[in-house]
Amino acid sequence: QVQLVESGGGLVQAGGSLRLSCAASERTFSRYNMAWFRQAPGKEREFVAAISWRIGGMTSTADSVKGRFTISRDNAKNTLYLQMNKLRPEDTAVYFCAGTRRVIAPTTPGEYDLWGQGTQVTVSS
Fold first, then answer.
1. pLDDT value at residue 12
2. End-to-end Cα, the chain, rounded Å
C-alpha cells in the first residue's frame, strides 16, 4: 500500500516562498504520475501542477500558478516537491499531493487514487 505524506506548509508573507514535499512510502512511487491540488475553505479542490513518470517527465501547471510554482520529483527519494515562489494571499489553501497510474497526469482530482492528508499554506498580505 502506497501512502503519501505532505510537509513543508506554513505561514509566509506575500511574495515569499515555500517548498512543499510529498513523501511516498515505497519505491513504486516512481511509476505514478503525481500532482498537487489545493483546496481553500468552502471551495472545490483545485489543480495546481502535475508531473508524469513517462513521456519525458512532462509537467503542467495551472494558469494561476504558472511562472511561480514548479513541480518536481526525485524518484530515488520517493518524493514529490512543489516549489512555490512569489506567493499571494489567494494561494492560501490546504495543499494535497496525489498519485495515479495513468499514462498522463490528469488535472481533475477524481482521476487520482492516492492522496495525502494535506498541508496548510497560509499567505499573509
1. 98
2. 40
C-alpha cell at 104: 498522463
Which three cell numbers, joined as nine digits, stand for 71?
513541480
Residues 77, 34: Cα–Cα separation, whole Å: 14
Give the integer Cα–Cα distance in Å for 49 and 73: 12
36, 16 in Cβ contact below 8 A? no
pLDDT digits (tens, 9 = 90+) for 30-73: 788 999 999 999 999 999 999 987 656 789 999 999 999 999 99
- Among candidates 82, 110, 94, which has minimal Cα distance to 40? 94
* SS3 sequence of the chain: CCCEEEECCEEEECCCCEEEEEEECCHHHHHCEEEEEEECCCCCCEEEEEECCCHHHCEEECCCCCCCEEEEEEHHHCEEEEEECCCCHHHCEEEEEEEECCCCCCCCHHHCCEECCCEEEEEEC
Give the CA diameter of the chain.
40
